[in-house]
Amino acid sequence: MSTPASSLIGKVWNYAHVLRDAGVGYGDYVEQITYLLFLKLDYETASVGRPSLIPPEYNWASLVRLDGDALQVHYQHILAELGRLKEAQQATILQTIFNKAQNKITQPALLRRLVGLIDSEDWSGLDIDIKGEIYEGLLQKNAEDVKGGAGQYFTPRPLIRAMVQALRLEPGQTVFDPACGTGGFLLAAYEYLSGLPLDRDQKIFLREHTLFGVDIVDSVVRLAAMNMYLHGIGGLHSPIRAADSLAADPGTRYDVVLANPPFGKKSAIEASTSTENGKASREKVVYERDDFIATTSNKQLNFLQHIKTVLKIGGKAAVVLPDNVLFEGGAGETIRRRLLHDCEVHTLLRLPTGIFYAQGVKANVLFFEKRPASETPWTRELWVYDLRTNLNFTLKTNPLSDKDLSDFLACYNPEARHGRQETERFRRFSYDELVARDKANLDIFWLKDKGLEDSLNLPPPEVLAREIIADLEAALEGFRTVEEELGEARG
């Protein structure tokens, strides 16, 4: 990381520890940084002739001159008022950043120090790459705070870069993430495309019409929108929306989908209903869509169906999915068989444990392309790369790096995907082999686990514990699925 960025991250993040002692969590701190940084940037750019997005009575100058209770009251007033700006078309980015905004810093002295910290820097004078790097650094530090739960929105950057490189994005394509978190996939796509030779029109299209993201969590949408803004993406109109991706077919189709849908079993929502006696009750509402192959409460299976829907014919997808999507019966089997038939499902990357902030996760990346309707299946063969067996990673001592994924990319062979060769970790399985497996199970492995053969060379205890937890959770999910299927059969 460049010196200006790392220095400023250190300065800004050191103050986070002070606020945490005062009861302000890291996630809340990054959120407050987002509000204040947007106010400061808007004021700086307006000072050099660009139109301000913020009314003068709510701008940075109106805030920075105050102190004590007056500062506290005015800051709360700014957040409330900017969150209400919905009529003006140019307020779209404001609405995204300040929607449901709240002040979490209740001590005026601490707020004054944070305002002073932001005010001491000339943010608009920093290069866009540096501003973006600073914010990405803050988001990563926030993700590292495992207790805060923010890690579920942060996919390892080496994995994201490898997925983007494998898809070989092209200028003029549209890229979508239906569970965008803080925007990591979209930024990686932007950086990849920015490195290609682009003419003026292609550069404008890249900044304003290429990248799109949705997330259901308002606070995360705010962080993603700010991340895009600091990288010069979207301009006045944020490419990030707050919505439930699974609620309905959005109608729009995209060339590329990159995603790591949130981990967890349930995607059902609950709605309040009234009974005859006037008492409120909670009713579970499962997503039922005409475009879905099967109705299920499995969140990742629903995201997989949604992604298939929003892809253009010929569109490409790379999706991070947990192991249960590969082997779960019932709706899982139905969806897998249809996906193999309707799409060209060509590559599966089995990921190692220890690379996500959510502990014990066993996940994979599924690569496929959507094809037109056909009586014969589009999947001819599935190539599986095993990056899991006999490989151990940890977030602190042995984190996943770009180098660890270089052999996968070489085997994937993005430039000539149909000229692949089998290796020890890369194997080919025909369509007939796949559909002949029990429940069309794609949980395929062939390498011997050396740890099971050599008890003197076991992985570290924390790795073993994490894998045991993952296996138990996978088994529990299986029992839940059986329970639900029995319940539906009785109902």
UniProtKB/TrEMBL annotation:
PANTHER family (UniProt xref): SLR6095 PROTEIN, TYPE I RESTRICTION ENZYME ECOKI METHYLASE SUBUNIT
Domain DNA methylase adenine-specific: 127-435
InterPro entries (UniProt xref): D12N6_MeTrfase_N, DNA_Adenine_Mtase, DNA_methylase_A-5, DNA_methylase_N6_adenine_CS, SAM-dependent_MTases_sf, T1MK-like_N_sf
Protein name from the UniProt record: site-specific DNA-methyltransferase (adenine-specific)
Boundaries of every N6 adenine-specific DNA methyltransferase N-terminal domain copy: 11-115
Reaction(s) the record says it catalyses: a 2'-deoxyadenosine in DNA + S-adenosyl-L-methionine = an N(6)-methyl-2'-deoxyadenosine in DNA + S-adenosyl-L-homocysteine + H(+)
PROSITE patterns per record: N6_MTASE (PS00092)
Enzyme Commission identifier(s): 2.1.1.72
Source species: Meiothermus granaticius NBRC 107808
GO MF entries: DNA binding; N-methyltransferase activity; site-specific DNA-methyltransferase (adenine-specific) activity
Top-rank lineage group of the source organism: Bacteria
Family: Belongs to the N(4)/N(6)-methyltransferase family.
